[in-house]
Amino acid sequence: MGLPMARRLAGAFPVAVFDIAAERRALAVEHGATEAATPADAARDADVVVLAVRDQAQVDGALFGESGAAQTLKAGAVVVLTSTVGPEAARSTAAALAERGKDVRLVDAPVSGGPTRAGNGDLLIVVGAEPAALEVARPVLDRLASTLTVIGDKPGDGQALKAINQLLAGVHIAAAAEAVALARGLGLDPQTVIDSLSQGAAGSFMFADRGPRMAQAYGDEADAVEVRSRLDIFVKDMGIVTGIAKNAHVPVPLASAAEQLYLLGERAGLAARDDSSIVTVLSPRGEDR
Amino acid sequence: MGLPMARRLAGAFPVAVFDIAAERRALAVEHGATEAATPADAARDADVVVLAVRDQAQVDGALFGESGAAQTLKAGAVVVLTSTVGPEAARSTAAALAERGKDVRLVDAPVSGGPTRAGNGDLLIVVGAEPAALEVARPVLDRLASTLTVIGDKPGDGQALKAINQLLAGVHIAAAAEAVALARGLGLDPQTVIDSLSQGAAGSFMFADRGPRMAQAYGDEADAVEVRSRLDIFVKDMGIVTGIAKNAHVPVPLASAAEQLYLLGERAGLAARDDSSIVTVLSPRGEDR
User: Fold this and answer.
1) Whole-complex ipTM
2) B265 and B222 in one domain?
3) Quick check: is B216 in a domain?
4) Is A162 a catalytic residue?
5) For A10-34, what is each residue's pLDDT tens digit?
6) Smallest Cα distance from A285 to chain B, Å
7) Range(s) of the domain holding residue A217
8) Are strands A123-128 and A145-152 parallel, antiparallel or unpaired?
9) PANTHER family from the xrefs (chains A, B) (predicted)?
10) Which of A142, A192, B61, B93 is most buried when burial is the number of CB atoms within 10 A of its CB?
11) Among the three residues A154, A189, A213, which one is the final residue of a domain in this structure?
Protein backbone atom coordinates (compact mmCIF):
# COMPACT_ATOMS: atom_id res chain seq x y z
CA MET A 1 0.00 0.00 0.00
CA GLY A 2 2.91 2.36 0.67
CA LEU A 3 4.06 2.71 -2.91
CA PRO A 4 0.72 3.73 -4.50
CA MET A 5 0.08 6.10 -1.58
CA ALA A 6 3.52 7.70 -2.03
CA ARG A 7 2.91 7.98 -5.78
CA ARG A 8 -0.46 9.59 -5.21
CA LEU A 9 0.93 12.05 -2.64
CA ALA A 10 3.93 12.94 -4.83
CA GLY A 11 1.49 14.32 -7.37
CA ALA A 12 0.50 17.06 -4.92
CA PHE A 13 3.24 17.51 -2.27
CA PRO A 14 7.00 17.20 -1.89
CA VAL A 15 7.44 13.62 -0.66
CA ALA A 16 10.55 11.90 0.74
CA VAL A 17 10.19 8.10 0.79
CA PHE A 18 11.80 5.31 2.68
CA ASP A 19 11.07 1.62 2.10
CA ILE A 20 13.15 -1.34 3.22
CA ALA A 21 13.11 -2.52 -0.42
CA ALA A 22 15.40 -0.40 -2.63
CA GLU A 23 13.41 -1.24 -5.79
CA ARG A 24 10.26 0.13 -4.24
CA ARG A 25 12.06 3.34 -3.26
CA ALA A 26 13.20 3.59 -6.88
CA LEU A 27 9.64 3.13 -8.17
CA ALA A 28 8.44 5.96 -5.92
CA VAL A 29 11.26 8.19 -7.19
CA GLU A 30 10.11 7.51 -10.76
CA HIS A 31 6.78 9.06 -9.73
CA GLY A 32 8.32 12.23 -8.34
CA ALA A 33 9.29 11.37 -4.77
CA THR A 34 12.73 11.98 -3.27
CA GLU A 35 14.60 8.97 -1.94
CA ALA A 36 15.54 8.86 1.75
CA ALA A 37 18.21 6.54 3.17
CA THR A 38 16.46 5.93 6.50
CA PRO A 39 13.14 6.71 8.21
CA ALA A 40 14.96 9.46 10.12
CA ASP A 41 16.14 10.92 6.82
CA ALA A 42 12.60 10.78 5.37
CA ALA A 43 11.05 12.47 8.42
CA ARG A 44 13.51 15.36 8.64
CA ASP A 45 11.69 18.68 8.02
CA ALA A 46 8.38 16.88 7.33
CA ASP A 47 5.10 18.38 8.54
CA VAL A 48 3.37 15.05 8.04
CA VAL A 49 4.93 11.57 8.26
CA VAL A 50 2.82 8.82 6.72
CA LEU A 51 3.43 5.28 8.01
CA ALA A 52 2.25 2.33 5.88
CA VAL A 53 3.69 -0.83 7.39
CA ARG A 54 2.57 -4.33 8.22
CA ASP A 55 2.26 -4.48 12.00
CA GLN A 56 3.15 -2.96 15.35
CA ALA A 57 6.75 -4.28 15.28
CA GLN A 58 7.33 -2.39 12.02
CA VAL A 59 5.69 0.74 13.47
CA ASP A 60 8.10 0.58 16.41
CA GLY A 61 11.07 0.01 14.11
CA ALA A 62 10.21 2.83 11.71
CA LEU A 63 9.57 5.35 14.49
CA PHE A 64 11.75 4.35 17.43
CA GLY A 65 14.40 2.00 15.98
CA GLU A 66 17.96 2.89 15.00
CA SER A 67 17.59 5.65 12.39
CA GLY A 68 13.89 5.83 13.26
CA ALA A 69 11.76 8.82 12.33
CA ALA A 70 11.37 9.93 15.94
CA GLN A 71 14.99 11.09 15.93
CA THR A 72 14.33 13.85 13.41
CA LEU A 73 10.62 14.66 13.75
CA LYS A 74 10.20 18.37 14.27
CA ALA A 75 7.91 20.05 16.80
CA GLY A 76 4.34 20.29 15.56
CA ALA A 77 4.70 17.45 13.09
CA VAL A 78 2.08 14.71 12.95
CA VAL A 79 2.50 11.00 12.27
CA VAL A 80 -0.30 9.47 10.23
CA LEU A 81 -0.63 5.76 11.01
CA THR A 82 -2.41 4.11 8.06
CA SER A 83 -1.82 0.50 9.12
CA THR A 84 -4.22 -1.79 10.96
CA VAL A 85 -2.50 -2.51 14.27
CA GLY A 86 -5.31 -2.35 16.83
CA PRO A 87 -6.39 0.40 19.27
CA GLU A 88 -3.84 -0.48 21.97
CA ALA A 89 -0.89 -0.19 19.58
CA ALA A 90 -2.17 3.19 18.34
CA ARG A 91 -2.53 4.49 21.89
CA SER A 92 0.90 3.27 22.97
CA THR A 93 2.51 4.75 19.85
CA ALA A 94 0.84 8.10 20.52
CA ALA A 95 2.05 7.97 24.12
CA ALA A 96 5.61 7.08 23.06
CA LEU A 97 5.66 10.03 20.64
CA ALA A 98 4.30 12.38 23.33
CA GLU A 99 6.99 11.22 25.78
CA ARG A 100 9.65 12.62 23.48
CA GLY A 101 8.41 16.07 24.48
CA LYS A 102 8.55 17.59 21.00
CA ASP A 103 4.82 18.06 20.51
CA VAL A 104 4.55 15.30 17.90
CA ARG A 105 1.06 13.84 17.66
CA LEU A 106 -0.36 10.68 16.17
CA VAL A 107 -3.25 10.69 13.70
CA ASP A 108 -4.75 7.21 13.87
CA ALA A 109 -5.99 6.71 10.31
CA PRO A 110 -6.20 3.09 9.15
CA VAL A 111 -7.11 2.72 5.48
CA SER A 112 -9.19 0.26 3.44
CA GLY A 113 -9.45 -0.27 -0.27
CA GLY A 114 -6.29 -1.93 -1.57
CA PRO A 115 -3.40 -0.73 -3.76
CA THR A 116 -5.38 0.28 -6.87
CA ARG A 117 -7.73 2.54 -4.95
CA ALA A 118 -4.77 3.89 -2.95
CA GLY A 119 -3.17 5.03 -6.20
CA ASN A 120 -6.38 6.79 -7.24
CA GLY A 121 -7.04 8.60 -3.96
CA ASP A 122 -10.09 6.38 -3.51
CA LEU A 123 -9.44 4.92 -0.04
CA LEU A 124 -11.82 4.66 2.91
CA ILE A 125 -9.99 6.18 5.88
CA VAL A 126 -11.34 6.10 9.44
CA VAL A 127 -9.75 8.55 11.81
CA GLY A 128 -9.24 9.01 15.52
CA ALA A 129 -7.21 12.14 16.29
CA GLU A 130 -7.17 15.39 18.21
CA PRO A 131 -8.78 18.07 16.03
CA ALA A 132 -5.57 20.16 15.88
CA ALA A 133 -3.49 17.17 14.76
CA LEU A 134 -6.13 16.19 12.23
CA GLU A 135 -6.00 19.73 10.81
CA VAL A 136 -2.30 19.32 10.03
CA ALA A 137 -2.83 15.94 8.39
CA ARG A 138 -6.03 16.76 6.54
CA PRO A 139 -4.57 17.80 3.14
CA VAL A 140 -2.69 14.51 3.01
CA LEU A 141 -5.72 12.46 4.07
CA ASP A 142 -7.95 14.28 1.59
CA ARG A 143 -5.50 13.44 -1.20
CA LEU A 144 -5.69 9.72 -0.34
CA ALA A 145 -9.34 9.26 0.66
CA SER A 146 -12.62 9.36 -1.20
CA THR A 147 -14.37 8.71 2.12
CA LEU A 148 -12.98 10.09 5.37
CA THR A 149 -14.80 9.24 8.59
CA VAL A 150 -13.72 10.92 11.81
CA ILE A 151 -15.04 8.51 14.42
CA GLY A 152 -13.36 9.93 17.53
CA ASP A 153 -10.95 12.48 18.88
CA LYS A 154 -8.17 10.24 20.13
CA PRO A 155 -5.74 7.70 18.68
CA GLY A 156 -7.22 4.21 18.95
CA ASP A 157 -10.71 5.26 17.83
CA GLY A 158 -9.82 4.84 14.16
CA GLN A 159 -8.33 1.43 14.88
CA ALA A 160 -11.47 0.42 16.80
CA LEU A 161 -13.70 1.24 13.82
CA LYS A 162 -11.29 -0.44 11.42
CA ALA A 163 -11.34 -3.57 13.59
CA ILE A 164 -15.14 -3.68 13.32
CA ASN A 165 -14.78 -3.26 9.56
CA GLN A 166 -12.39 -6.21 9.48
CA LEU A 167 -14.65 -8.32 11.71
CA LEU A 168 -17.44 -7.94 9.17
CA ALA A 169 -15.20 -8.28 6.11
CA GLY A 170 -13.40 -11.35 7.47
CA VAL A 171 -16.60 -13.08 8.57
CA HIS A 172 -18.32 -12.29 5.27
CA ILE A 173 -15.45 -13.78 3.23
CA ALA A 174 -15.55 -16.92 5.39
CA ALA A 175 -19.35 -17.10 5.02
CA ALA A 176 -19.00 -16.77 1.24
CA ALA A 177 -16.52 -19.65 1.34
CA GLU A 178 -18.98 -21.81 3.28
CA ALA A 179 -21.72 -20.96 0.78
CA VAL A 180 -19.57 -21.85 -2.23
CA ALA A 181 -18.25 -25.02 -0.57
CA LEU A 182 -21.79 -26.10 0.37
CA ALA A 183 -23.04 -25.37 -3.15
CA ARG A 184 -20.38 -27.74 -4.47
CA GLY A 185 -21.21 -30.32 -1.82
CA LEU A 186 -24.89 -30.23 -2.81
CA GLY A 187 -24.13 -30.47 -6.52
CA LEU A 188 -25.13 -26.90 -7.40
CA ASP A 189 -23.02 -24.72 -9.68
CA PRO A 190 -21.29 -22.14 -7.44
CA GLN A 191 -21.45 -19.28 -9.95
CA THR A 192 -25.18 -19.85 -10.50
CA VAL A 193 -25.69 -19.75 -6.73
CA ILE A 194 -23.73 -16.49 -6.49
CA ASP A 195 -25.73 -14.94 -9.34
CA SER A 196 -29.01 -16.05 -7.74
CA LEU A 197 -28.34 -14.86 -4.20
CA SER A 198 -25.88 -11.98 -4.20
CA GLN A 199 -28.42 -9.20 -4.77
CA GLY A 200 -30.93 -10.37 -2.16
CA ALA A 201 -31.14 -10.76 1.60
CA ALA A 202 -28.09 -13.05 1.51
CA GLY A 203 -25.95 -10.47 -0.25
CA SER A 204 -22.72 -8.90 0.93
CA PHE A 205 -19.98 -6.92 -0.75
CA MET A 206 -17.63 -9.83 -0.11
CA PHE A 207 -19.98 -12.51 -1.50
CA ALA A 208 -20.29 -10.55 -4.75
CA ASP A 209 -16.56 -9.70 -4.85
CA ARG A 210 -14.82 -12.84 -3.57
CA GLY A 211 -17.52 -15.35 -4.57
CA PRO A 212 -16.66 -15.43 -8.28
CA ARG A 213 -12.95 -15.89 -7.46
CA MET A 214 -13.94 -18.75 -5.15
CA ALA A 215 -15.94 -20.34 -7.97
CA GLN A 216 -12.97 -19.79 -10.27
CA ALA A 217 -10.83 -21.86 -7.89
CA TYR A 218 -12.58 -24.99 -9.18
CA GLY A 219 -12.48 -24.22 -12.89
CA ASP A 220 -9.86 -24.36 -15.61
CA GLU A 221 -8.55 -20.95 -14.54
CA ALA A 222 -7.90 -22.02 -10.94
CA ASP A 223 -4.21 -21.14 -11.04
CA ALA A 224 -4.92 -17.70 -12.51
CA VAL A 225 -6.75 -16.35 -9.44
CA GLU A 226 -5.20 -12.94 -8.93
CA VAL A 227 -3.86 -12.06 -5.48
CA ARG A 228 -5.75 -8.87 -4.68
CA SER A 229 -5.60 -9.23 -0.90
CA ARG A 230 -3.37 -11.77 0.84
CA LEU A 231 -4.96 -14.35 3.08
CA ASP A 232 -2.53 -13.73 5.93
CA ILE A 233 -3.79 -10.16 6.30
CA PHE A 234 -6.90 -11.74 7.83
CA VAL A 235 -4.81 -13.92 10.12
CA LYS A 236 -3.40 -10.68 11.54
CA ASP A 237 -6.64 -8.68 11.47
CA MET A 238 -8.93 -11.35 12.92
CA GLY A 239 -6.31 -11.75 15.64
CA ILE A 240 -6.68 -8.03 16.41
CA VAL A 241 -10.49 -8.37 16.38
CA THR A 242 -10.67 -11.31 18.75
CA GLY A 243 -8.00 -9.75 21.01
CA ILE A 244 -9.81 -6.45 21.48
CA ALA A 245 -13.17 -8.19 21.82
CA LYS A 246 -11.74 -10.36 24.59
CA ASN A 247 -10.31 -7.30 26.33
CA ALA A 248 -13.73 -5.65 26.11
CA HIS A 249 -15.41 -8.88 27.33
CA VAL A 250 -17.59 -9.07 24.21
CA PRO A 251 -18.19 -12.60 22.86
CA VAL A 252 -17.54 -12.86 19.09
CA PRO A 253 -18.08 -16.54 18.27
CA LEU A 254 -18.25 -16.04 14.50
CA ALA A 255 -15.15 -13.86 14.35
CA SER A 256 -13.35 -16.51 16.41
CA ALA A 257 -14.45 -19.26 14.04
CA ALA A 258 -13.29 -17.13 11.11
CA GLU A 259 -9.91 -16.54 12.78
CA GLN A 260 -9.43 -20.29 13.14
CA LEU A 261 -10.35 -20.78 9.50
CA TYR A 262 -7.76 -18.24 8.33
CA LEU A 263 -5.16 -19.92 10.55
CA LEU A 264 -6.06 -23.24 8.91
CA GLY A 265 -5.62 -21.56 5.53
CA GLU A 266 -2.21 -20.24 6.52
CA ARG A 267 -1.16 -23.71 7.73
CA ALA A 268 -2.38 -25.14 4.43
CA GLY A 269 0.14 -22.98 2.60
CA LEU A 270 -2.23 -20.24 1.45
CA ALA A 271 -0.71 -17.29 3.37
CA ALA A 272 0.40 -15.40 0.26
CA ARG A 273 -2.57 -16.47 -1.89
CA ASP A 274 -5.69 -14.41 -2.47
CA ASP A 275 -7.95 -14.55 0.59
CA SER A 276 -10.69 -16.09 -1.58
CA SER A 277 -8.56 -19.27 -1.62
CA ILE A 278 -9.83 -19.98 1.91
CA VAL A 279 -12.70 -21.83 0.18
CA THR A 280 -10.26 -24.60 -0.77
CA VAL A 281 -9.76 -25.42 2.92
CA LEU A 282 -13.48 -26.23 3.21
CA SER A 283 -13.78 -27.89 -0.19
CA PRO A 284 -10.42 -28.99 -1.63
CA ARG A 285 -9.81 -28.78 -5.34
CA GLY A 286 -9.85 -31.98 -7.32
CA GLU A 287 -12.50 -33.63 -5.17
CA ASP A 288 -15.55 -34.63 -7.10
CA ARG A 289 -17.48 -31.99 -5.23
CA MET B 1 -46.65 -15.95 5.14
CA GLY B 2 -49.68 -18.02 4.13
CA LEU B 3 -52.23 -15.25 4.58
CA PRO B 4 -50.59 -12.57 2.40
CA MET B 5 -49.83 -15.21 -0.24
CA ALA B 6 -53.46 -16.35 -0.25
CA ARG B 7 -54.61 -12.73 -0.46
CA ARG B 8 -52.28 -12.05 -3.36
CA LEU B 9 -53.38 -15.21 -5.21
CA ALA B 10 -57.10 -14.52 -4.61
CA GLY B 11 -56.69 -11.35 -6.66
CA ALA B 12 -56.00 -13.47 -9.75
CA PHE B 13 -57.33 -17.01 -9.25
CA PRO B 14 -60.12 -18.85 -7.45
CA VAL B 15 -58.53 -19.80 -4.11
CA ALA B 16 -59.79 -22.15 -1.38
CA VAL B 17 -57.95 -21.67 1.91
CA PHE B 18 -57.34 -23.76 4.96
CA ASP B 19 -55.47 -22.55 8.05
CA ILE B 20 -55.49 -24.11 11.52
CA ALA B 21 -56.47 -20.67 12.87
CA ALA B 22 -60.10 -19.79 12.07
CA GLU B 23 -59.44 -16.03 12.29
CA ARG B 24 -56.80 -16.31 9.58
CA ARG B 25 -59.16 -18.26 7.34
CA ALA B 26 -61.68 -15.44 7.87
CA LEU B 27 -59.11 -12.79 6.93
CA ALA B 28 -58.36 -14.63 3.68
CA VAL B 29 -62.08 -14.86 2.92
CA GLU B 30 -62.33 -11.08 3.35
CA HIS B 31 -59.85 -10.83 0.49
CA GLY B 32 -61.81 -13.01 -1.87
CA ALA B 33 -60.80 -16.57 -0.99
CA THR B 34 -63.23 -19.40 -0.24
CA GLU B 35 -63.00 -21.05 3.15
CA ALA B 36 -62.21 -24.77 3.36
CA ALA B 37 -62.87 -26.91 6.44
CA THR B 38 -59.82 -29.17 6.00
CA PRO B 39 -56.74 -29.47 3.79
CA ALA B 40 -58.58 -32.22 1.89
CA ASP B 41 -61.46 -29.85 1.31
CA ALA B 42 -59.13 -27.08 0.11
CA ALA B 43 -57.30 -29.40 -2.33
CA ARG B 44 -60.40 -30.89 -3.93
CA ASP B 45 -60.50 -29.95 -7.65
CA ALA B 46 -57.37 -27.78 -7.33
CA ASP B 47 -54.81 -27.70 -10.12
CA VAL B 48 -52.22 -26.20 -7.78
CA VAL B 49 -51.99 -26.68 -4.00
CA VAL B 50 -49.77 -24.14 -2.26
CA LEU B 51 -48.31 -25.20 1.10
CA ALA B 52 -47.01 -22.49 3.46
CA VAL B 53 -46.28 -24.12 6.79
CA ARG B 54 -43.59 -24.07 9.44
CA ASP B 55 -41.74 -27.36 9.13
CA GLN B 56 -41.71 -30.91 7.86
CA ALA B 57 -44.14 -32.15 10.54
CA GLN B 58 -46.70 -29.62 9.34
CA VAL B 59 -46.06 -30.61 5.71
CA ASP B 60 -46.77 -34.23 6.60
CA GLY B 61 -49.88 -33.28 8.55
CA ALA B 62 -51.32 -31.05 5.81
CA LEU B 63 -50.69 -33.59 3.05
CA PHE B 64 -50.87 -37.03 4.62
CA GLY B 65 -52.65 -36.54 7.95
CA GLU B 66 -56.31 -37.18 8.68
CA SER B 67 -58.23 -34.96 6.23
CA GLY B 68 -54.91 -34.27 4.48
CA ALA B 69 -54.79 -32.86 0.97
CA ALA B 70 -53.44 -36.11 -0.51
CA GLN B 71 -56.89 -37.69 -0.04
CA THR B 72 -58.49 -35.41 -2.60
CA LEU B 73 -55.67 -34.29 -4.91
CA LYS B 74 -56.60 -34.99 -8.50
CA ALA B 75 -54.38 -36.53 -11.17
CA GLY B 76 -52.07 -33.96 -12.77
CA ALA B 77 -52.23 -31.56 -9.83
CA VAL B 78 -49.02 -30.09 -8.40
CA VAL B 79 -48.14 -29.27 -4.81
CA VAL B 80 -46.05 -26.12 -4.41
CA LEU B 81 -43.96 -26.33 -1.25
CA THR B 82 -43.03 -22.76 -0.26
CA SER B 83 -41.63 -23.59 3.19
CA THR B 84 -37.97 -24.05 4.12
CA VAL B 85 -37.74 -27.68 5.22
CA GLY B 86 -34.45 -28.89 3.72
CA PRO B 87 -33.70 -30.94 0.59
CA GLU B 88 -34.31 -34.34 2.19
CA ALA B 89 -37.80 -33.38 3.35
CA ALA B 90 -38.65 -32.09 -0.14
CA ARG B 91 -37.42 -35.31 -1.75
CA SER B 92 -39.30 -37.56 0.68
CA THR B 93 -42.49 -35.53 0.25
CA ALA B 94 -42.21 -35.80 -3.54
CA ALA B 95 -41.67 -39.55 -3.21
CA ALA B 96 -44.64 -39.93 -0.86
CA LEU B 97 -46.89 -38.07 -3.32
CA ALA B 98 -45.64 -40.21 -6.22
CA GLU B 99 -46.37 -43.42 -4.26
CA ARG B 100 -50.05 -42.53 -4.26
CA GLY B 101 -50.04 -43.31 -7.99
CA LYS B 102 -52.19 -40.34 -9.00
CA ASP B 103 -49.52 -38.42 -10.93
CA VAL B 104 -49.27 -35.65 -8.35
CA ARG B 105 -45.91 -33.89 -8.44
CA LEU B 106 -44.08 -31.63 -6.01
CA VAL B 107 -42.74 -28.22 -7.03
CA ASP B 108 -40.02 -27.41 -4.49
CA ALA B 109 -40.27 -23.62 -4.28
CA PRO B 110 -39.10 -22.09 -0.98
CA VAL B 111 -39.69 -18.36 -0.71
CA SER B 112 -37.82 -15.41 0.82
CA GLY B 113 -38.92 -11.88 1.52
CA GLY B 114 -41.36 -11.80 4.41
CA PRO B 115 -45.11 -11.11 4.69
CA THR B 116 -45.14 -7.59 3.21
CA ARG B 117 -43.37 -8.62 0.03
CA ALA B 118 -45.52 -11.77 -0.14
CA GLY B 119 -48.64 -9.57 -0.26
CA ASN B 120 -47.15 -7.51 -3.08
CA GLY B 121 -46.00 -10.41 -5.24
CA ASP B 122 -42.42 -9.37 -4.53
CA LEU B 123 -40.94 -12.63 -3.23
CA LEU B 124 -37.69 -14.32 -4.20
CA ILE B 125 -38.59 -17.91 -5.07
CA VAL B 126 -36.01 -20.59 -5.84
CA VAL B 127 -37.32 -23.65 -7.60
CA GLY B 128 -36.39 -27.27 -8.10
CA ALA B 129 -39.01 -29.11 -10.17
CA GLU B 130 -39.59 -31.21 -13.25
CA PRO B 131 -40.26 -28.87 -16.18
CA ALA B 132 -43.78 -30.25 -16.73
CA ALA B 133 -44.73 -29.75 -13.08
CA LEU B 134 -43.21 -26.28 -13.08
CA GLU B 135 -45.33 -25.42 -16.12
CA VAL B 136 -48.52 -26.17 -14.18
CA ALA B 137 -47.40 -24.10 -11.19
CA ARG B 138 -45.86 -21.20 -13.09
CA PRO B 139 -48.89 -18.82 -13.17
CA VAL B 140 -49.12 -19.13 -9.39
CA LEU B 141 -45.38 -18.65 -8.86
CA ASP B 142 -45.31 -15.67 -11.25
CA ARG B 143 -48.10 -14.05 -9.25
CA LEU B 144 -46.07 -14.37 -6.02
CA ALA B 145 -42.49 -13.76 -7.17
CA SER B 146 -40.64 -10.76 -8.48
CA THR B 147 -37.57 -13.00 -8.87
CA LEU B 148 -37.95 -16.65 -9.81
CA THR B 149 -34.80 -18.76 -10.04
CA VAL B 150 -35.06 -22.29 -11.38
CA ILE B 151 -31.92 -23.86 -9.95
CA GLY B 152 -32.59 -27.52 -10.80
CA ASP B 153 -35.06 -30.01 -12.24
CA LYS B 154 -35.90 -32.03 -9.15
CA PRO B 155 -37.45 -31.44 -5.74
CA GLY B 156 -34.71 -30.71 -3.20
CA ASP B 157 -32.74 -28.39 -5.50
CA GLY B 158 -34.80 -25.36 -4.46
CA GLN B 159 -34.33 -26.28 -0.81
CA ALA B 160 -30.57 -26.64 -1.34
CA LEU B 161 -30.30 -23.12 -2.76
CA LYS B 162 -32.59 -21.74 -0.05
CA ALA B 163 -30.38 -23.36 2.59
CA ILE B 164 -27.34 -21.57 1.14
CA ASN B 165 -29.36 -18.33 1.21
CA GLN B 166 -30.14 -18.94 4.88
CA LEU B 167 -26.52 -19.82 5.68
CA LEU B 168 -25.45 -16.42 4.40
CA ALA B 169 -28.39 -14.51 5.88
CA GLY B 170 -28.06 -16.14 9.29
CA VAL B 171 -24.29 -15.67 9.45
CA HIS B 172 -24.58 -12.05 8.29
CA ILE B 173 -27.14 -11.22 10.99
CA ALA B 174 -24.90 -12.80 13.63
CA ALA B 175 -21.87 -10.91 12.25
CA ALA B 176 -23.85 -7.65 12.41
CA ALA B 177 -24.66 -8.46 16.03
CA GLU B 178 -20.98 -9.00 16.82
CA ALA B 179 -20.12 -5.70 15.12
CA VAL B 180 -22.75 -3.74 17.07
CA ALA B 181 -21.85 -5.46 20.36
CA LEU B 182 -18.15 -4.76 19.80
CA ALA B 183 -18.86 -1.13 18.90
CA ARG B 184 -20.63 -0.77 22.26
CA GLY B 185 -17.81 -2.55 24.04
CA LEU B 186 -15.26 -0.19 22.52
CA GLY B 187 -17.30 2.90 23.34
CA LEU B 188 -18.31 3.72 19.76
CA ASP B 189 -21.84 4.72 18.83
CA PRO B 190 -23.38 1.71 17.02
CA GLN B 191 -25.46 3.75 14.57
CA THR B 192 -22.41 5.83 13.58
CA VAL B 193 -20.48 2.60 12.99
CA ILE B 194 -23.31 1.25 10.81
CA ASP B 195 -23.48 4.48 8.81
CA SER B 196 -19.69 4.48 8.35
CA LEU B 197 -19.26 0.88 7.24
CA SER B 198 -22.44 -0.42 5.64
CA GLN B 199 -21.73 0.84 2.13
CA GLY B 200 -18.12 -0.38 1.94
CA ALA B 201 -16.25 -3.68 1.90
CA ALA B 202 -17.85 -4.60 5.25
CA GLY B 203 -21.37 -4.14 3.93
CA SER B 204 -24.15 -6.70 3.73
CA PHE B 205 -27.89 -6.49 3.20
CA MET B 206 -28.34 -7.72 6.76
CA PHE B 207 -25.91 -5.22 8.34
CA ALA B 208 -27.80 -2.36 6.69
CA ASP B 209 -31.23 -3.86 7.46
CA ARG B 210 -30.86 -5.39 10.94
CA GLY B 211 -28.04 -3.14 12.19
CA PRO B 212 -30.24 -0.10 12.91
CA ARG B 213 -32.74 -2.29 14.80
CA MET B 214 -29.82 -3.70 16.81
CA ALA B 215 -28.68 -0.18 17.66
CA GLN B 216 -32.28 0.66 18.56
CA ALA B 217 -32.21 -2.16 21.13
CA TYR B 218 -30.05 0.06 23.36
CA GLY B 219 -31.97 3.30 23.00
CA ASP B 220 -35.17 4.71 24.44
CA GLU B 221 -37.18 2.87 21.78
CA ALA B 222 -35.79 -0.56 22.73
CA ASP B 223 -39.19 -2.07 23.46
CA ALA B 224 -40.62 -0.80 20.18
CA VAL B 225 -38.42 -2.98 17.94
CA GLU B 226 -40.87 -4.43 15.45
CA VAL B 227 -40.89 -8.20 14.90
CA ARG B 228 -40.31 -8.48 11.18
CA SER B 229 -38.74 -11.93 11.25
CA ARG B 230 -38.79 -14.16 14.32
CA LEU B 231 -35.53 -15.29 15.83
CA ASP B 232 -36.59 -18.95 16.05
CA ILE B 233 -36.86 -19.13 12.27
CA PHE B 234 -33.07 -19.09 12.29
CA VAL B 235 -32.93 -21.79 14.96
CA LYS B 236 -34.81 -23.99 12.49
CA ASP B 237 -33.01 -22.81 9.34
CA MET B 238 -29.45 -22.93 10.70
CA GLY B 239 -30.31 -26.42 11.92
CA ILE B 240 -31.20 -27.36 8.34
CA VAL B 241 -27.98 -25.73 7.08
CA THR B 242 -25.64 -27.52 9.48
CA GLY B 243 -27.53 -30.80 8.98
CA ILE B 244 -27.22 -30.86 5.21
CA ALA B 245 -23.62 -29.61 5.37
CA LYS B 246 -22.75 -32.48 7.71
CA ASN B 247 -24.46 -34.96 5.38
CA ALA B 248 -22.43 -33.53 2.49
CA HIS B 249 -19.23 -33.62 4.62
CA VAL B 250 -18.67 -29.88 4.16
CA PRO B 251 -17.30 -28.05 7.23
CA VAL B 252 -19.28 -24.86 8.01
CA PRO B 253 -17.69 -23.53 11.21
CA LEU B 254 -19.31 -20.07 10.99
CA ALA B 255 -22.79 -21.43 10.31
CA SER B 256 -22.32 -23.76 13.28
CA ALA B 257 -21.28 -20.86 15.52
CA ALA B 258 -24.31 -18.89 14.30
CA GLU B 259 -26.61 -21.85 15.01
CA GLN B 260 -25.32 -22.00 18.59
CA LEU B 261 -25.87 -18.25 18.94
CA TYR B 262 -29.50 -18.51 17.80
CA LEU B 263 -30.02 -21.41 20.22
CA LEU B 264 -28.61 -19.20 22.99
CA GLY B 265 -31.05 -16.49 21.93
CA GLU B 266 -33.96 -18.92 22.05
CA ARG B 267 -32.90 -20.09 25.54
CA ALA B 268 -32.69 -16.43 26.60
CA GLY B 269 -36.39 -16.03 25.81
CA LEU B 270 -36.04 -14.30 22.44
CA ALA B 271 -37.69 -16.98 20.24
CA ALA B 272 -40.65 -14.80 19.24
CA ARG B 273 -38.67 -11.51 19.15
CA ASP B 274 -37.20 -9.94 16.05
CA ASP B 275 -34.04 -11.78 15.00
CA SER B 276 -32.07 -8.54 15.44
CA SER B 277 -32.53 -9.05 19.21
CA ILE B 278 -29.74 -11.65 19.04
CA VAL B 279 -27.37 -8.73 19.68
CA THR B 280 -28.62 -8.56 23.28
CA VAL B 281 -27.19 -12.03 23.92
CA LEU B 282 -23.70 -10.71 23.10
CA SER B 283 -24.17 -7.32 24.78
CA PRO B 284 -27.07 -7.28 27.29
CA ARG B 285 -29.17 -4.17 27.62
CA GLY B 286 -28.65 -2.05 30.68
CA GLU B 287 -24.94 -2.75 30.90
CA ASP B 288 -22.85 0.36 30.72
CA ARG B 289 -21.60 -0.78 27.34
Assistant:
1) 0.94
2) yes
3) yes
4) yes
5) 999 999 999 999 999 999 999 999 9
6) 13
7) 160-282
8) parallel
9) 3-HYDROXYISOBUTYRATE DEHYDROGENASE-LIKE 1, MITOCHONDRIAL-RELATED
10) B93
11) A154
